[in-house]
Amino acid sequence: MPILNVKISQPASAELTHAVSETLLELTTRILRKKREVTAIAVDYVPPQHWIVGGSSLAEQGKNSFYFDIKVVDGTNTKDEKAQYIAESFAAFSKLLGNLHEESYIYVHDVRAEAYGYGGLTQEYRYIKAKA
Description:
Layout: E1 3-8, H1 14-31, E2 40-45, E3 52-53, E4 56-57, H2 58-61, E5 66-73, H3 79-97, E6 105-111, E7 117-118, E8 121-122, H4 123-131
Parallel strand pairs: 1-2, 5-6
Antiparallel strand pairs: 1-5, 3-4, 7-8
Helix pairs in contact: 1-3
C-alpha cells in the first residue's frame, strides 16, 4: 500500500525501471509518509511514436513524457503534501528522462479505506484492528 502505475515514453530498460522505482519510493515515503515495504510499483514502457500529445507523437515532437497514478487512503495526506509530491515528482522525471513534455501527468487518487486494500484485507479493517 500504495500502488503506483507508471507509463514512460522510452524503450524498456531495467536500469530506468530501477531508477524510476527508487525515485518514486523515496518521494512516496518522504513526502506522503507511506511505508516503503508495502509500496508496489508497476512500470510500463510506451514507444514514443505511440504516445500522442496534441495530435502528434512524442517521436515527432522530439519529447519524452510520463504518466503515473498513485492510490492512497483518503484523508491521509494534505493538499500541501500532494502538491509537493506532484512538483517534486515532475522535477525528478525531468532529470530522469530529459526533454520532458509539459503534458506529463501525475494523479494522486484518494480512495476510501473500506474500498481499498491488499492481502485480502481493506485498509479500514487494518485501521480498526490496529486500534483494538
